[in-house]
Specification:
- The protein is globular and about 60 Å long.
- The strands form two sheets. A six-stranded mixed sheet has the order 1-2-3-5-7-10, sandwiched between helices. The protein has a four-stranded mixed sheet with strand order 4-6-8-9.
- The protein contains twelve helices and ten strands.
- The chain binds acetoacetyl-coenzyme A.
- The site of acetoacetyl-coenzyme A (CAA) has 21 residues, from α2, β6 and α5.
């Protein structure tokens, strides 16, 4: 971990907060290495069931760090495996993740939010892919994840124009699943994370694996994978406990196995 990312644990929820207030939380190596280290730690910590990624009230993150990228040449980014090297840990993270977005989520900031499983927004959140304005393209996943999230028409519109989307538009188009007043965003996100984290961790992980597959596979392949995962839940003690608790009209007590 480092100062550019703050780590906190509340119950079974791990929280990583991007912390570069002087640069609108622009995503440099320090931030991305910090996020990667935090995610590694939370993945290995069995008591963590859900992770929140957040920023400040002003900015979730205003994109990749332009000052750092400014003098890069092709050979630098190719040799260093730019983005792929330390941005994509979220892609392989196996527990549920929530991006809690207030303020700007621009370029790479929007892309990091889209790498999370859920995006909750404050009413002051603003999303855009402004890379066209600086002569490049959104290269941390938006050309692939944005059309899947909001459809072709809006994805093309946002990328070609770089225009800003409000929180309510983002909700309307399915980029985020909830919008809260700015002052309530963290409390509401934490409350939701706490509820998710109370469920069986292996069941959550199997569900995430199955949902994530839907983006990678044709329907019948995805359905076959889902069915295997369903069968796998029948090997869980937690599945027995959940069903027994329902029948016995008592709260379930999951042991995460
Ligand atoms: N990289 C580096 N520094 C950034 C930054 C970024 N992406 N965004 C903001 N900053 C810095 C500014 O340079 C400024 O620093 P100084 O005080 O030292 O001058 C500081 O943060 C505050 O920013 P502003 O003065 O610009 O604040 P504002 O309120 O007037 O505007 C903003 C805020 C609309 C977010 C504006 O800063 C902005 O447009 N930022 C750039 C957004 C952008 O183009 N992002 C895409 C980056 S490319 C990318 O992400 C590619 C990819 O896919 C990997």
């Amino acid at each position: 971990m480092n100062n550019a990312v703050l780590k906190e644990i509340q119950g079974r929820t791990g929280i990583l907060t991007i912390n570069r207030p002087d640069a609108m939380n622009a995503l440099n190596d320090e931030v991305m290495n910090g996020l990667t280290a935090g995610l590694d730690e939370f993945e290995n910590n069995e008591s963590i069931h859900c992770v929140i990624i957040s920023g400040s009230e002003k900015a979730f993150a205003a994109g990749a760090d332009i000052a750092a990228m400014r003098n890069y040449e092709y050979i630098d980014v190719y040799r260093d495996n730019f983005i792929s090297r330390n941005w994509e840990r979220l892609k392989t993270f196996r527990k549920p993740t929530i991006a809690a977005v207030a303020g700007y989520a621009l370029g790479g900031g929007c892309e990091v939010a889209m790498m999370c499983d859920m995006v909750f927004a404050a009413d002051n959140a603003k999303f855009s892919l402004p890379e066209i304005k600086i002569g490049t393209l959104p290269g941390a996943g938006a050309t692939q994840r944005l059309p899947r999230a909001v459809g072709k028409a809006l994805a093309m519109d946002l990328c070609f124009t770089g225009r800003m989307l409000s929180a309510s538009e983002a909700l309307q188009f399915g980029l985020v699943s909830r919008v809260y007043p700015k002052a309530d965003l963290m409390a509401e996100t934490l409350a939701q994370a706490r509820d998710i984290a109370a469920y069986s961790l292996p069941a959550l992980m199997m569900m995430k694996e199955s949902l994530s597959r839907s983006f990678e596979t044709p329907l019948n392949e995805g359905l076959a994978f889902e069915r295997k995962m369903l069968y796998a839940t029948f090997a869980l003690e937690d599945r027995k406990e959940g069903m027994n608790a329902f029948i016995e009209k008592r709260p379930a007590s999951f042991r995460n196995r």
